[in-house]
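We emphasize that the prediction below concerns an isolated chain of 498 residues; any contacts that depend on oligomerization or on bound cofactors are therefore not represented. The input was used exactly as deposited, without trimming of termini.
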Amino acid sequence: MNCFMGIDIGTSGCKALVFDESGQQLSESSRSYEIISKKNGWAELDTVEVISKCFEVIRESASNTEEGIIAALGISSQGEAFTMIDEIGNPLCNAFVSSDIRSNELIKPWTERFGEEKLYRITGHTPHPMFSLFKLLWVKENMPEIWKKAFRILCFEDLLQYRLGIKNPSMGWPLAGRTMLFDVIKHSWNDEILNNLGLDKKKLSEPLKSGKSAGFVREDIAKQLNLGDKTLIVTGGHDQTCSALGAGVTSTGTAAYSSGTVECITSAFNNPVFTDELRKNNLCTYDFTLPGMYSTVAFSLTGGNLLKWYMDQFGAAEAELAANINSDPYELLLNQMPDEPSGLLVLPYFTPSGTPYFDVSVKGAIMGMDLSVKRGEILKALLEGVAFEIKLNLDILKRSGYEIKELRLIGGGTKSEKLVRLKTDVIGTPITILDIREAGCMGAAILAKAAYSGIDPRKIAEDWIRPVARIEPKDTDYYNIKFESYKKLYPALKELNL
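Result of the prediction step, given as a token string:
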């Protein structure tokens, strides 16, 4: 029996899961790490720590299966983050991750010189400090010695390949797309962007389709990690597209809804589309993990951070009670929400906004407060606000010809039936709950099996992924009326932000 490993390298931790031929999970291992923030707006990861922990989870997960049984492994990686290494492979600096916005002041002058519309037509993305392009520009201007010494610039997918013994690593097209250095139509690094940045293409890894062979784990390293002599390494790509495949998104009209620290919608469609509507609203077009398909991501950076913030600030009693009765403190808080919709309106920008505004200075707001408002109603209004933000993005996609008729929910937000019901009602779209905890690893493992066996990844996804429940929306008339007010909130409050 052959088995397949999916590795997911995220912003806060890494995981490795092993699946058998039928998609049954055999083992799992995870490690966490902390973001380093030396200054306001900076966000880094210790590259040595991340790769070391990737090795730990691979070894641990492989050790819980029969020796030599893992035929292939696929890698799902956080987007945008990169590390600069020297000629012997040592990192020259920490990895700059997505939420690092130090390059914000450099974006406008560079983009004006290059041409914003031209940049969009090449890369499928609109300018934002999250993207590798602008982070690299900052390094060039502020860390010139490191810029000169850099032998390679590697994202985490190709960096792990490199550490596993691949001398000339590659990355999946969806991850290459998130650098904003990549032509999403020609599927190659764009010479004009690289020339404007002053970056030698030889320092970048080879972009390949998702689900392609990148080589084999080097024999001595495989032995250290309890892998077989011939473990195939397969390209995965950006974690959001890998997660969408792992959620069973294989056709148009369906999207993955990742409900966690960041709330993110990842859809799939058959052709690349570049429209003024999508560009104006910062909704990208880049490669999906399935051959010939493209994707877009719509996201709220505040997302589940808002529930955690509420717990940290106002949930001490629930946390103490949960510890005493062996319960979930979040569920205790959610149970205090009223059954009916709240009478409040929340602008959920307690972090920089995601799509559609890409506003790094906006602040959140709670509207409609009076002395009759209870704590549970405030919590419900905060969560309604995040759901309205997702609805706003889906509404823009619908106007652009991409109507999402089913959301497949993955992530921590699947645990609470009450929270899922709230999201369904506010968004007004059916939500399917899946028997999957780690969709990124599942998607990477599907690609690993597809590359090893030659089976269409769509067929593997169909066989492996098992829906548990489908929640149909209710109370949509009330929330549709309230949504019209929500759409006016950001423009009205934008000029009042402190």
